[in-house]
Specification:
299 residues; alpha+beta; 37% helix; binds copper (II) ion
Length: 299
């Protein structure tokens, strides 16, 4: 072991840059290899996604992790590498004193800004695709989030003397169930008569605020049958934790059978979607028709 002369640190710095670069490449390669959508580890903790909109969101999630890990590996390599390569090797040695290094300063200002722009643009792109709405979805669901459960309305879905809307009213003891046909585009119109809730299904990778007085809506295209958990994603109050529900994505026949089963009890049937609170005076269907007229805003 000889003395480390200051003029030899240029070579060391080059070695350091090379190792940091290869650590980053290894991280990206590992990330790409491990990120299938088949396993939970590959999905980086996300559940299996059963909507087309959710697939884009899952890809964004995986891409963001790969980019963050690659950045992490480069940063960790630099932190550890610098500590090892530039450690004091001799009592008499004074290391090279670097300051006002303009290229380095420009690099660490510009590069993070570029990274933020890239992350931001991908997020906006995916958000816009996920929130795209088609003119006439296969199924309209009027969702009501109220303290402390959900009501799911299926407007114009049955033909009985009591009306054409069937609904399921969830309670703390009997959590709400939502039936949806598979391979269909579903539109959720969200209403709240009291406080801000948030309607979301992890397996759809979609959720949205349910705001009193606001006409929020989104669509999903279901791709796989199954039973999935749903919840309120907004800390809405005392019994927020009770706002669980269950989503059944079923075949077209099972979906029709469920609606008919629901309609057998006149307590589950009404003329208009039931919304409770102030919405009792403003039927949801009118709002759906109104917002269909100015659908252009969504495009
Ligand atoms: Cu809630």
């Amino acid at each position: 072991m000889g003395l480390r002369h200051p003029e030899r640190t240029g070579e060391t710095a080059r070695r350091l840059r090379r190792s940091a670069g290869s650590a980053g490449l290894v991280a990206i390669a590992l990330g790409l290899a491990g990120c299938s959508k088949e396993t939970e580890a590959g999905r980086l903790g996300m559940p299996e996604i059963v909507t087309t909109q959710g697939q884009d969101i899952l890809s964004l999630w995986q891409g963001a992790w790969i980019a963050a890990l690659a950045t992490g590996f480069v940063v960790w390599a630099l932190i550890i590498g610098v500590a090892v390569y530039f450690r004091r090797r001799n009592e008499d040695e004074i290391p090279v004193q670097t300051r006002y290094n303009l290229p380095v300063e420009i690099f660490y200002t510009i590069f993070p800004i570029i990274m933020v722009i890239v992350f931001f643009s991908h997020t906006v792109r995916v958000q816009n695709t996920a929130l795209e709405m088609v003119e006439d979805p296969d199924v309209n669901i009027v969702v009501v989030g109220q303290k402390w459960q959900w009501t799911f309305n299926y407007p114009e879905s049955v033909d009985t003397p009591e009306g054409s809307n069937v609904f399921f009213n969830g309670t703390g003891d009997n959590i709400a169930e939502l039936y949806l046909p598979v391979d269909s585009t579903i539109e959720f119109r969200l209403f709240s008569p009291d406080v801000v809730h948030n309607f979301g299904v992890p397996a759809f990778a979609m959720r949205m605020d349910v705001v009193p007085g606001a006409d929020n809506a989104f669509q999903v295209h279901t791709t796989e049958e199954g039973t999935y958990a749903g919840k309120c994603y907004e800390l809405c109050g005392t019994y927020h934790s009770r706002m669980l529900f269950e989503v059944h994505v079923v075949s077209q026949d099972e979906y029709q059978a469920y609606l008919e089963r629901l309609a057998q009890d006149p307590d589950n049937v009404s003329e208009e979607p039931v919304q409770g609170g102030t919405y009792a005076e403003a039927p949801a269907l009118e709002e759906i028709e109104e917002s269909d007229e100015d659908e252009g805003e969504h495009e």
